[in-house]
């Protein structure tokens, strides 16, 4: 990464902003003096291991210092973001759900906008981080975006902005879906008399191991379901009951609701 490039993260002390900032520092993609972060409440201890990271309250100051600006506030705070003229023409990477390229461009005064969608696994650098760039973003900037976002896991450019709205529901909110499955499995194990610590370990290890197996196999997850149905053992009995109970419809309705929410305030 160019020694000269300075990245500013508006909301850099929050959940996503700090996950990105710390990943960039820990992976030596940026040095501490290349990072400036803003927060409404001033410095936190998030960057205490990197005293050269500049922490500011004023987003105009951040925009004046930064070459590239990451926007990582909650969607409802977008209307209050003021970077003045300093942001004009600068590359903006917005992590916001529910805010279009057009809205971000209007609020920040730059039409060189990338929309990127992290998820909570950015904290452990296992996020899947899709992004979409507006027309004005040039190829070398696209390469830069890919490199910055890959610090948190895997990043991928998308061909259409509408895909970001969809993926906000699928992958942006995604870590919540296995959490809900884990909760249901845990409650069931406890109801069946398994001690709490053993039940929790069983659920976590099963979901993590099962996910890693799917990743390792790299095939359509439906293949494993079909193979286990054909095996015709205990798993098949459980799968049949869940399939007949329309688990897949419940999941689809949930994703539809999250997708509608991701699209709702778009203009
Ligand atoms: N948390 C998640 O799992 C995901 C979040 N996102 C998106 O990421 C964005 C950030 O979300 P989180 O990090 O979860 O929120 P957060 O609430 O943890 O962090 C936002 C930070 O922005 C700061 N802030 C608010 N207004 C500010 C201003 N005017 N100037 C400077 N800082 C300001 C807040 O004090 C806070 O520290 C949201 O727009 C959300 O839609 C996207 C995918 C997943
Ligand atoms: O729940 C939310 O609105 C944010 C965006 C996607 C995941 N978390």
TrEMBL record:
Binding site for NADP(+): 39
InterPro entries: 6-PGluconate_DH-like_C_sf, NAD(P)-bd_dom_sf, P5C_Rdtase_cat_N, P5CR_dimer, Pyrroline-COOH_reductase
UniProt KW keywords: Amino-acid biosynthesis, Cytoplasm, NADP, Oxidoreductase, Proline biosynthesis
GO BP terms: L-proline biosynthetic process
Recorded superkingdom: Bacteria
Residues given in the record as NADPH binding sites: 59
GO CC, alphabetical: cytoplasm
Residue ranges of every copy of the Pyrroline-5-carboxylate reductase dimerisation domain listed in the record: 161-261
Top EC class of this enzyme: oxidoreductase
Reactions catalysed: L-proline + NADP(+) = (S)-1-pyrroline-5-carboxylate + NADPH + 2 H(+); L-proline + NAD(+) = (S)-1-pyrroline-5-carboxylate + NADH + 2 H(+)
Keyword Cytoplasm: yes
GO molecular function: pyrroline-5-carboxylate reductase activity
Keyword Repeat set for record: no
Pathway where it operates: Amino-acid biosynthesis; L-proline biosynthesis; L-proline from L-glutamate 5-semialdehyde: step 1/1
Compartments, record wording: Cytoplasm
Annotated signal sequence range: none
EC number: 1.5.1.2
Residues annotated as domain Pyrroline-5-carboxylate reductase catalytic N-terminal: 7-97
Role this protein plays: Catalyzes the reduction of 1-pyrroline-5-carboxylate (PCA) to L-proline.
Sequence similarity: Belongs to the pyrroline-5-carboxylate reductase family.
Name the UniProt record assigns to this protein: Pyrroline-5-carboxylate reductase
Originating species: Halomonas cupida
